[in-house]
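Chain A, query sequence.
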Amino acid sequence: MLAAVLKDFNNLVLEEVPRPEPGEGEVLVRIKSCGICATDYKAIKGIRKNVEFPLIPGHEPAGVIAAVGAFVRNVKEGDEVIVSPSGFCGVCRNCRLGLTHYCDRSYTTGGDGYDVRPGSFAEYTVTGANNVYAKPASLSFDAACQGEPVSGAWKGLIHYSQIRVGDDVVVIGTGGIGMYCLMVAKAAGAGRLIAVDVSDYALETAKRLGAMHTINPKHGDAKAAIYEILPEGPDLVVEAAGPIQAVELMVSLLRRGTRWNLFGITTHEKLQLDGGWMHFLEARMDASFSTNPLAMENAIRLMARNLVNPEKVISHRFPLSEIHKAIETMGSPERNKIIINP
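Chain A, predicted structure.
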């Protein structure tokens, strides 16, 4: 099969590799669509260093079941599925508590973690049968492959930060995941919804997705602009950007009772907090990484009911043979979600 293999930082090679075969409890998925996440981009460009080579990246796939291993009963050959990259055993203590993304034997297909298996910038991927979900017929494969990032947005805003109807929400960073956070916040009944980004292109998309106000920190004082709109401060701030400067902006926005979610930053950078100030503010910090079956099921419901429509976020599509062009486009400010079609 054709696959994009990361041999070293900045050395992504298209080559023919053996097609994998599913083992017991596993399925082989013919990949139809796979989104490019910032996590993939950071690995390819060497921005994050916790990568073992060689690696087939890509962890936002959807496709068709091509073969099933022994003892698989939940799907059959020909089924159209959405794939979660977050593998789990189902029997450890964390799994039985519903915290499958804390699984003692967790693995990820093409993403970030300790046990990283071949991902989906390839024609086929093998994963556990418990990691696949039925694709609603109403969804295209390009939209369906966004189940994982949409589930992350649901998990962060709904399950962890407990957004409430009428909450004033600031989303810092309107890349793919930030766009889904915007749409989830809007669907959940956000009051005033503000998008912050350094890309005017992304902010234009954010407006179309429901942001009532957009702010570009390159054009002025972002905190002052936000407090002009929200004199009493935000109820919820979501950092979906990645750079430490975005986290610093988030912290600067806090007032008493603000909830804030560290969502986008994945690199190990330092941030200083005033302990006493945090104490008296009673600001509640949440964070969210990966996904789990609860989040995946809810994300698929949101997409099937058109409350979150990934088609509105997708800006570029490339065949697998043009993945190098896709990766370079990821570095452009004039793009939103990019999809690979193997």
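The mean pLDDT is 96. Residues 150-287 form a domain with the Rossmann fold fold (CATH 3.40.50.720).
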